[in-house]
Amino acid sequence: MNFYVTVLGSGAALPTGVRRCSAQVLNANGFKLLIDCAEATQDRIRYNHLKLQSLGTVIISHLHGDHFFGLPGLLSTMHLCGRTEPVTIVAPKGAREVIETTFALTGNHIEFPIEWHEMDFGEGMHRVFEGKRCTVDAFPLVHSVPTYGFRITEVPRGSNAPRVYSYCCDTAYTEDILPYIEGSNLLCLECTFADELVELATTRCHLTAGQAGRLAAKAHVEKLLLTHISARYREPDLLLEQASAEFANCVVASDSMRIDV
């Protein structure tokens, strides 16, 4: 059974020639779930030979542009390509207003229905999507705007234990999330900065590589995927070294990487 992630963008804030901004597609046994939607996400979908119209659900962690600005274009292209099936969008409160205002002011429209689920909670973990192949639970992170992490659980076929993929991007260091990511088969955490810039990371509500590794170790996950890499790090060796000092089984995400959960 297939349960894997395709990384479309692994960079932070500013796209570079090798790292676009945040977006991933999770394949849950044939069901495609888009996680975050930065600029150029639809281009990266095509580049990675994924089918645009196969995406039925989009989950957005927060409304910063490097996680959200690709959504109007993505929806518009779906319409232009003749989509009639509904799209489910799970996003923080305000996302619907942004999308509907954008289409109203630009004269664009779409002819397929959007099923909105806007998140507006400050504590606890809440079920935000339930499908035949996976479920999604959301929990708050610590960032400069309302931001949510996701625990995505496979609906297994047969007696195999369900696999779990957890995604947390962006967030300051907080151990409050440990119960929500505990025991994940694969944990995706941001590691925007190296440990030497811990003060900057704290100010901007981001993680260092070492902090990401520490959270993975405390949560007893199987594997750590590091993403949201600052453009200042042309080579991620330093980040991998610092994270690995805290948690051995980790890898740095790269654009177009495919990784099993």
Calculate the mean pLDDT score and round it: 96
Task: Determine the strand fraction and express it as a percent band.
Answer: 25-35%
Summarize the main sheet: 7 strands, mixed
Quaternary state, please? single chain
Helix fraction bin: 10-25%
Rg, nearest Å: 17 Å
- The residue ranges in which pLDDT falls below 50 over 5 or more consecutive positions are none
Structural class: alpha/beta
Q: What is the first-to-last residue Cα distance?
A: 11 Å
Note the overall shape. globular
How many helical elements? Answer: 8
Compressed to H and E, one letter per element, the order equals EEEHEHHEHEEEEEHEHHEHEE
Lateral arrangement of strands in the main beta sheet: 6-5-4-3-2-1-14
